[in-house]
Design goal:
This protein has 405 residues and is α/β, with parallel strands linked by helices. The protein has 16 helices and 14 strands.
């Protein structure tokens, strides 16, 4: 097998993953500097500081667009110009009626309104509503209760109300899966300031929500076809989606002592986060995608489908798919090659075809084509502006477990 990529950031001679985890490195001062930059809306300086890059960094981030840090920061400072913050849209009523749609239930007809001129902006959320969405992923609080509070305190017909109602309608968790509140370890730096840090991507995501005026997905988010210039930067440094503490702990609960196989592990951020919670995680990736930051030094570089088939489908491991690619029918082939009892998928929950399958969501695929499996969890993940992501968990049904074993 090809060697694993090293845990490094391209362009930095000093960076190490441990530098961004104060519980490992007691590097509280670094986070003080990062937060100071974020609070001052200095995105480039925050990334340069976090990943120990030269001030004049000109690395080009290739993803949905190609940008450097200066260009990304310029787009942030441009604010709403050129529709950059148009996250909340809906079909124009006259277009729905012309298409013969019943506007009392527009969701089924949204896909037929691909022309962006047939859409209209419904508004922008307030800063307090953005902060309320961010608070849903506060690890020291119950995510379920925070989501209920998001709705309870929402003004009628507001963006916040639409977000809360949508996320609550999607959320599901089996009663036997309990997620305790997370106790963040507190540390003191040499100036006596108390600090603690466990999930670096979450801080940058929270900053992006405020800077880009995003208060979460709603029933129309699948209509949003554009993104923002800072998405490629986030993807290169942290991966395609931010893990929440709730999601990580749910994976730990359903693993129940088993090892986790992070298939298509990318730059290893989810693997590292799960390991920090005490799980044994094996990362496997084809290494076809290039990342600026790699978080772990022990990725097994291999074709995922062949890896499973050569090992009898890894029956004693939990399968984790984070943002599985749509092309090549990868998701279907991996699931069909897996012989264990638990599948966790972090991906889209609004049918925009961005992960898993072009024409259906992962829960629809499992419900219609894998009837021996049942959904036991679907919880929202911290979603980048214009995205709508969730963690799905599926268990093989009890009678099927006995048959397979």
């Amino acid at each position: 097998m090809p060697p694993s990529p090293a845990a490094v950031t391209d362009g930095s001679k000093t960076w190490s993953p441990s530098h961004l985890f104060t519980t490992e490195d007691h590097n509280a001062d670094l986070w003080n500097k990062i937060h100071a930059h974020l609070n001052s809306n200095e995105f480039k300086s925050a990334i340069v500081t976090a990943f120990e890059l030269p001030p004049g960094d000109h690395f080009t981030y290739h993803a949905s667009a190609s940008v450097n840090l200066s260009q990304a920061e310029a787009a942030i400072h441009a604010g709403r110009a050129n529709g950059l913050h148009a996250w909340y849209i809906e079909p124009r009523l006259e277009n729905i009626e012309a298409a013969g749609q019943d506007h009392s239930d527009t969701q089924d007809g949204l896909g037929h309104l691909a022309d962006q001129s047939s859409l209209k902006l419904t508004g922008y959320p307030s800063t307090s509503d953005v902060q309320a969405y961010i608070a849903v992923f506060d690890p020291t609080k119950s995510a379920a209760n925070s989501l209920k509070s998001l709705l309870a305190n929402a003004k009628k017909d507001s963006v916040r109300q639409s977000v809360a109602e949508y996320l609550l309608s999607k959320r599901y968790l089996d009663s036997d899966i309990t997620v305790p509140r997370f106790k963040i370890q507190s540390l003191q730096n040499d100036r006596g300031q108390t600090t603690g840090h466990e999930n670096p991507a979450l801080d940058f995501w929270a900053y992006a929500c405020v800077a880009l005026e995003y208060a979460g997905p709603n029933q129309n988010t699948a209509l949003v076809k554009s993104s923002h210039h800072i998405l490629p930067v986030f993807m290169h440094h942290f991966g395609c989606v931010v893990p929440s503490y709730e999601a990580l702990q749910i994976i730990g609960k359903v693993a129940n002592g088993k090892s986790v196989l992070d298939m298509g592990s990318g730059n290893g951020y989810w693997t590292l986060m799960l390991r920090h919670l005490g799980l044994t995680v094996l990362a496997v990736d084809s290494a076809q995608s290039k990342w600026r930051t790699v978080w772990i030094p022990d990725t097994t570089v291999a074709d995922g489908i062949q890896y499973l088939r050569k090992r009898g489908g890894c029956p004693d491991m939990v399968l984790l798919l984070v943002y599985p690619v749509v092309g090549g029918d990868f998701t279907r082939k991996v699931i069909e090659s897996y012989n264990g009892d638990v599948i966790c998928v972090a991906g889209t929950q609004n049918g925009n075809g961005y992960t898993g399958f072009k024409d259906m969501m992962i829960d629809e695929f499992m419900r219609t084509e894998k009837k021996s499996w049942e959904r036991c969890a679907q919880v929202p993940l911290p979603s980048f502006a214009g995205k709508d992501d969730a963690l799905f968990v599926f268990r093989r049904k009890e009678d099927e477990v006995h048959r397979v074993s």
